[in-house]
TrEMBL record:
Residues 1-33 form the signal peptide. SUPFAM superfamilies: Acid proteases. Residues 126-465 form the Peptidase A1 domain. Belongs to the peptidase A1 family. It comes from Rhodamnia argentea. Keywords: Signal. Pfam families: TAXi_C (PF14541), TAXi_N (PF14543). This is Aspartyl protease family protein At5g10770-like. It comes from the Eukaryota. PANTHER family: ASPARTYL PROTEASE AED1, ASPARTYL PROTEASES.
Length: 470
């Protein structure tokens, strides 16, 4: 403790002339300089113990990482970066197929593509527990801004259900369940959100949708139910998928909670109540919790910086954002602005690692490596190629990375959005390249950590508020 105090004293003196903020919060103490951040190496590793935060807002759900000790479904496994790579490849391939048409998905230049069939895109990394039915049953769903339909596995699992941690939802035990008829307008409009034609079973509407290379899928009855967020907030007659044939890499989760831009999304179905506003904070570490909250009332958008939502060609499902530049250690990288503007980017809750055009990624990587030249590089840990062995260090100093978006706004990433812990001593630069200058970028969930990300859909803008989880 004595050496720590000394350390901080030195730090305070060293950066007294810079913009410095000292947050003396046990081990998570961080020193912010203008161009670099110094923090304890241990603060970058998730703890095996859950530090859950609580919320008293009525329209708020807790968000937890799927590998979090705070998850009701935690199985003790840490985040596996190989698994993460495979899931991201499947996810990106799926998003590309939606944006550019199926043929473009095949242009993904990665030798690992051939094995992605085994790793469905799933739906991302963060979980929220909702209530469904009357009386309500709690179901833990993957939260996904990239897909529209909310669905859960349903009894009697007429064809097949995978195993999930919570009891499978049984519509016969709920007084508020109703099938949607084939002739209902919502049945005929369904394909805009599922990308598959709807069908009939008797007079009941049947939906189908797939993720990744069709390995992850769900087919079932399109139905209405009461969806409960909290003791005071519920959406009645919420249209959802009651899955009778489900498969793929959903790993114990009861289904998916869809927030993409489509009429079938929770966003639209709750529009009269919440006005198409939502925000979330992904926790800086898997050992803490974040939140997903709906409606403008519960937002602190006044202190957020906003960038316009841009249109993504051929798919209105995704939330497009325009990256205009990146700086490392306060110095803007010399990346021609056309590198970003020619292709565009989407912000996604389900892709883990931000994917940049190759020109942008290599500029970021070389500036980062230069700033980190005091540290010993270690072997790459795919998908990461810039990794450091920090086993001899108690503190690490990393350059500040700032993303600029159309607005213009500058978003200074949290350290948890820059370094990814691979092992107890190995840290990697948490970005990757799309591998193709013509492929659009994806602003992934690691880089969103610790910000409140505000989706003001009627205002056509997305905002970022630093230190947004508390
Ligand atoms: C939650 O809803 C109840 C009943 O409508 C209301 O009295 C209370 O103020 C709400 N709480 C919050 C934090 O909005
Ligand atoms: C990580 O995931 C990969 C791919 O699923 C698997 O082959 C490997 O055994 C996993 N590693 C650990 C340590 O669980
Ligand atoms: C919903 O439709 C399916 C298929 O037609 C039928 O088996 C089931 O009993 C219906 N459920 C209700 C509650 O109407």
């Amino acid at each position: 403790m004595a050496s720590w105090s000394l350390y901080f004293l030195v730090e305070i003196l060293r950066c007294a002339s810079l913009l410095c903020l000292l947050c003396l919060d046990d081990m998570a103490c961080v020193v912010y300089g203008a161009q670099e951040i110094t923090l304890p190496v241990t603060s970058l590793f998730p703890s095996p113990i859950c530090k859950a935060s609580t919320s008293n807002a009525n329209s708020t759900l807790k968000l937890v990482h799927k590998n979090s000790p705070c998850s009701p479904l935690f199985n003790g496994e840490p985040v596996n970066h190989t698994q993460l790579l495979l899931e991201d490849i499947a996810r990106v391939k799926w998003i590309r197929s939606k944006i550019s048409g199926a043929s473009a998905a095949n242009s993904l230049k990665d030798s690992a593509v051939s094995i992605t069939a085994k790793y469905g895109a799933g739906g991302g990394s963060y979980l929220a527990t909702i209530g469904l039915g009357t009386p309500k049953k709690d179901l833990t769903l993957l939260f996904d801004t990239g897909s529209a339909l909310t669905w859960t596995q349903c009894e009697p699992c007429a064809v097949s259900c995978y195993s999930q941690a919570e009891p499978i939802f049984d519509p016969s035990q709920s007084s508020s369940y109703a099938n949607i008829s084939c002739s209902a307008p919502s049945c005929t409009q369904l394909p805009s959100g599922t990308a598959r034609p709807s069908r009939c079973s008797g007079s009941t509407c049947v939906y189908a949708t797939g993720y990744g290379d069709q390995e992850s899928f769900t087919v079932g009855f399109f139905a209405t139910e009461t969806l409960t967020l909290s003791s005071t907030d519920a959406i009645t007659s919420f249209e959802f998928g009651c899955g009778q044939n489900n498969g793929g890499r959903f790993k114990g989760f009861a289904g998916l909670f869809g927030l993409a831009r489509d009429w079938i999304s929770f966003l639209e179905q709750s529009a009269t109540k919440y006005g198409r506003y939502f925000s979330y904070c992904l926790p800086p570490s898997t050992s803490s919790t974040g939140y997903l909250t709906f409606g403008m009332g519960s937002m602190t958008s006044a202190s957020a910086s906003f960038t316009p939502i841009s249109m993504v060609s051929q798919s209105s499902l995704f939330y497009g954002i325009d990256i205009t530049g990146i700086s490392v250690g306060g110095k803007p990288l010399s990346i021609p602005s056309t590198v970003f503007s020619n292709v565009g980017s989407v912000i996604d809750s389900g892709t883990t690692v931000t994917q940049l055009p190759p020109t942008a990624y290599s500029a970021l990587r070389s500036a980062f490596r230069q700033a980190m030249s005091n540290y010993r590089m270690s072997a790459p840990a795919s998908p990461f190629d810039t990794c450091y062995d920090l086993s001899g260090s108690t503190m690490v100093t990393v350059p500040v990375i700032t993303f600029s978006f159309r607005g213009p706004i500058d978003v200074q990433l949290d350290p948890s959005g820059v370094l990814f812990p691979v092992t107890q001593s190995q840290m990697c630069l948490a970005f990757s390249s799309t591998g193709d200058e013509t492929a659009f970028g994806i602003y992934g969930n690691i880089q969103q950590r610790s910000f409140e990300v505000v989706y003001d859909v009627p205002g056509g803008r997305i905002g970022f508020r630093a230190k947004g989880c508390s």
